[in-house]
Amino acid sequence: MEQIETVIVGGGQAGLSVGYYLQQQGRDFVILDAHERNGDAWRKRWDSLRLFTPARYSGLAGMPFPAPAFVYPTKDAMADYLASYATRFKLPVKQSIRVDKLSKQGDRFVVAAGDLRFEAENVVVATGGYPGPRIPAFARELDPAIRQLHSSEYRRPSQLQAGGVLVVGAGNSGAEIALDVSRSHRTWLSGRHPGNEPTRAGSKVDRLVTPVIWFVFSYVFTVNTAVGRRVATQVRSHGLPLARVRSADLLAARVERIQARTVGARDRQPLLADGRVLDVTNVIWCTGFQPEYGWIALPIFGDDGEPIHECGVVATQPGLYFVGLFFQSAVTSSLVGGVGRDAAYIADRIAARASAVATVEGRGAYTTL
User: Fold this and answer.
1) Does 217 lie in the same domain as 187?
2) Chain centroid, CA 330 distance in Å
3) Buried (b) or exposed (e) across 244-278, using 16+ Cβ within 10 A?
């Protein structure tokens, strides 16, 4: 049993950001990362992926992203950046440690990872907002001969069988993967069009308006404003607009755009909401992700499986925090360049809690933050 003030679970951009701020305060902490290297979560995405934010808004505190301001980094460049970040600030990351359980003994948390045990006053869950792939139940009704991949498993077209490809889900991931596979396979893209951002990524107009949009997304569309809460509801139900792909791009690539959703299986083939059945040999599920917190053995979740928190602070379990959640405090909370604000806030809460406990210790009182 290793005793430490704060355990951070997750070594991606959220975990490293919290670590940076705790280190600036001189606090005692460790970061537990399930991957072999920092940035591996990015390395395992599809080969052609680029960030949807330019380098200017893709860096963490203390270390700007090493690229021209309006270049869109590749996923491997982001992975290498995160590894360099951890090295530069000598953050105490323990690699290849997958946490199995988070529980509590008395007033301290116990983090279990295989044979390892960490006892902590604070725990920061920085595993990402939705780590679990979401695949519809009817997927198991499709012909076993159909090659099925979730977007988290897709890397490149060579993974696919000869024949047609149905990409289910027309958000950013679905649209970009559809373009990628259309170079070598006949491709259908199924799902409602979520709309487009007003400017094309990287254009001159985009460079002018991006700073304004980033400010609005960071300081106007927040959980503390009425307009921000409306935006959060809309994004949760309809998804984010497409950042790079336009309908003309899909048309030029001969991607067959289907507005009807994929709703089931008929004759062991994908069934569309309009009654059509597609004869394909591959299906890529770009249907998003879902909460995956079965390892947290604490009563902190709502009926939807989401943690109940206020800007990342779990009031019912003093000392437990989240960072990197979707719309944790603003639209930018789950983006690389926006996670730092929430990380700084949580680090300050940890420091304030330690100070409050030290102040009242011995008086028979206990202040929680």
Assistant:
1) yes
2) 14
3) bbeeebbeebebbbbeebbebbeeebbbbeeeeeb
Indicate the residue among 252, 285, 318 that finishes a domain. 285
199 in a structural domain: yes
Helical H segments across 242-283, by residue range: 247-252
Total-model pTM: 0.92
Indicate if the pLDDT at residue 100 is higher than 60. yes
Among 285, 313, 330, which residue terminates a domain?
285
The CATH number of residue 161's host domain is 3.50.50.60
Tens-digit pLDDT profile for residues 297-335: 999 999 988 999 999 999 999 999 999 999 999 999 999
The answer to whether residues 329 and 309 belong to one domain is: yes
Q: At what angle do helices 75-88 and 13-24 cross, to 10 degrees?
A: 20
**Longest distance between any two alpha carbons in the chain, whole Å:** 73
CA pseudo-torsion sign 213, 215, 219, 223: positive
263 within some domain: yes
- Residue 96 tokens read as 């290849």
Q: Is there a single domain that holds both residue 230 and residue 155? A: yes
Selection from 142-156, 287-301, 348-362 with the highest mean pLDDT: 142-156
Give the structural domain span for 278. 134-285
- 187-206 core/surface letters (b: 16 or more CB in 10 A; e: else): bbbbbeebeebebebeeeeb
Sequence-ordered list of residues with C-beta below 8 angstroms from that of 272, at least 6 positions apart, any chain: 190, 258, 260, 261, 262, 263, 278
Number of domains in the chain: 2
Phi-psi group of 303: left, alpha or beta (phi > 0 → left; psi -120 to 50 → alpha; rest → beta): alpha
Distance CA 46, CA 66 (A): 22
Cα distances from 186 to residues 56, 283, 317, in angstroms, run 37, 12, 52
Same domain membership, residue 281 and residue 199:
yes
E-assigned strands of 141-206? 147-150, 165-168, 187-190
